[in-house]
Structure formats: structure tokens, C-alpha cells
Amino acid sequence: MTDAGALPEPTDAQKELARARAIFDAGDYLLLREVATPLTKSDDPEVRRAAEDLLRNVEIDPVAKWIGLATLALLLFVTYWWVIR
Q1: Which end of the chain is more exposed for a tag (fewer CB within 10 A), N or C?
Q2: Cα separation of 8 and 13, whole Å?
Q3: Is residue 3 situated within a structural domain?
Q4: Within a domain: residue 1?
Q5: What's the confidence (pLDDT) of residue 3?
Q6: What is d(CA 55, CA 62) in angstroms, rounded to the nearest whole number?
Q7: pTM of the entire predicted model
Q8: What is the model's pLDDT at position 13?
């Protein structure tokens, strides 16, 4: 006999999503990418959207990329200037 108010059994994709969230909370972003990337191709739109959100949270900030490149360019310029003078 089943309870009429019982929640349905979670699917495998939902279980993997819960695992991905736990991995995110633990801070293992490399493993998170391995687990969440296949979930972005899930048939369940809720799972797909949640997996994409998790992956978006661990992407490198584009501003940080530009700041890093600008810092590298400045370092190269200063080094070149020092050597030439």
C-alpha cells in the first residue's frame, strides 16, 4: 500500500544532480565538471537547467581573464624596458 501524498521516486538524473550539488558544496570543481557536464544533455529540463547553473558558477570570470592578461602585458613591458635600458 502506497501513501497518496508520497513523493515520486527521484530519477537517476535527479540523483546525479543531487550528487553534483554535494560536490559543489564540497568545493571539488574538477569532479563537478565531470559529473555535471553529462547532465546538461538530460531529457529533464529542470535537471539540465540546474546542471548548467552549477557549471556557470565554476567558470572563470571574464574580467579576471582580462586583468590577468593586462598584468602579463605590463610585466612583459617592464621586463623589456629594464633589459633595454
Answers
A1: N
A2: 14
A3: no
A4: no
A5: 62
A6: 15
A7: 0.69
A8: 87
